[in-house]
DNA sequence: TTGAAAGCGCTAACAC
DNA sequence: GTGTTAGCGCTTTCAA
């Protein structure tokens, strides 16, 4: 019996304490091989008593599988990454898989360092995520020796990619407003240079028809204020609903309307996009908004990367996941039917 | 020469290609042992050409050191964790250390699963972090086989702990307001049940003196509104400055003052706490506020956990890191001298 | 100056 | 039913 008190208990210690060989101990603990039930349970008891936990490194070295994946993101703010991460983690934790989080800003050198570090640590796969779906991360992830899943960031040709269904979310918002009896629905959104802006605006136009009016601007509260000024200072009929490209714009819109004495939701309904709770819930009245279900997106990304790591075939291409309307008080209308 | 095309290149391959033994190859690459410079550089060239990267698992198994640490947090929102994480990552990345992020909500079972998984993976240390400094995480981290550093969460007796210096931050805010010539400074803050609320309020009282007036409430914009209503609807002299317990309260205060026609910063100065940019920058005018320097706190936590892992002695106890005043426009006054 | 061999903790063939 | 042994990729004595 070797003298190593301060260190972890190894399978060797379990075997010795149970009076069997380490092979038998291993088989007993992994429910493989054959032996009497008595031996198996004795070994298990001893292991439990000693607090034995197998060394994942040794296992990984043997199996070429580390039960570890890497999550790469350039979303320092975490607004998109955190819910995504929560989903990934949730999908993987009961498989015993842990997640390396690497925030790479937009620095290619830093990105490379992190990717190399993950590869050195033999991650089973990588999930690449970002803050917009029409930009690639500043690092080339093709032809890596491990599978890659792209979540909420642009994927290369033939990449396995997951995004939320912007168009469907947009349609959902418009339909909700229509269902409330709104007739003059305007869309106030971010910069045209964002693919999701065009996607949402396109779906909005298709749903609203000839009357469609889109105001492009920035992703800020201030732009929401300004857009309201433009709309209300113009001659002619005013909108009775505003569908906003994100929650910050929506908050600006709501504040501006209130300051003008426009009654919400009586006279005008406002829908946001993102369901960023810090913004949506602090708005007066709280925002009805579209949730991109990023946590579910993360779960799916976790499942996919694991499937890939296990050698299962996964069709490349872009998978669009549904958005959900979250009803608060900025539109009127009760909970959804 | 074995046939393994699809797999990573091992030191064996490098040795073979360079015509040396793996022992020599290893020494060459690690700048240990002795050999001719020619041999060493030849091996290095071959390794570079082959794109050799050592298997971190094998190394870890050998050295009992995984170059991996775990970051545990119950701050799902990420408001505190993300900057912290960024700092940790920054401090560790050039040491080749990667970070497992584990979001545990407030679920003891989940926490245990994650901690066990990290331990199985032989992390070199753990950083425990949270969303308030007067609550412990729902898991016992004492007597683990690896070092633990507590950052922005309550540590057990004798833990190594890092928090921001709330009292100093509070003093800084008050001094700034005094320096601007403000005479009637009120403090509007969160619930008394938070240690940091008492800490900040105490320092505020000490700095302001007999006139000190503290309004306790919740951490919300709404409470900011309500506090202004109380203060301005009361008889007597009005405050000329409000120091708020966080940025959300400050935003509520600023909005309420504007709605009352009080001119900011001409008549009243407002200081927030947290420097949560999404809130501070969207406020009109943008908030002057106290930054807790969580990123630096993260860096320090990373350094400490590494020192501990390396066996260096680190004195237990609470380390308070300084806060910084960030000047925007809600107080008047130029950039700091 | 270089190389053979042992071993980190574990699992899986293969003997017995 | 149980044990012996080889080996995952690497570093490190120790011998040549």
Automatic annotation (TrEMBL), chains A, B:
UniProt-recorded Gene Ontology molecular function terms: DNA-binding transcription factor activity; transcription cis-regulatory region binding
- Provide the alphabetized UniProt keywords: DNA-binding, Repressor, Transcription, Transcription regulation
This protein's species is: Devosia lucknowensis
Q: Which residues cross the membrane?
A: none
Q: Mind telling me what this protein is named?
A: Transcriptional regulator, LacI family
Query: Which residue intervals define the domain HTH lacI-type in the entry?
Result: 9-63
Lineage of source species? Bacteria, Pseudomonadati, Pseudomonadota, Alphaproteobacteria, Hyphomicrobiales
